[in-house]
Amino acid sequence: MKKMNLDKGLMVQLILVLILVIVLLLSLFFKFLLPVAEILAGAALIVMGYNNYRIYKRKAMTAIYIAFGIIVFMGVIWGFISG
Fold first, then answer.
1. Whole-prediction pTM value?
2. Is there a contact between 27 and 37 (Cβ–Cβ < 8 Å)?
3. How does residue 2 score in pLDDT terms, banded at 50, 70 and 90?
């Protein structure tokens, strides 16, 4: 049962990264997709932090990934607020 939960976290990470790559490639042609790419990058960083904590037991890297994910989300919010 525990292995299934670990595989779900890795599957979510894989899907987020694949969608992020696709959106980044599309954003070369459609500039309105850049905020979507930033949101996906923040979500991917937070999921990577979660996987580091649950699977690899590296607590220092977990904090770094989650901190950068929050910083990316704050940057997206700041960009929407400032216009």
1. 0.85
2. yes
3. low
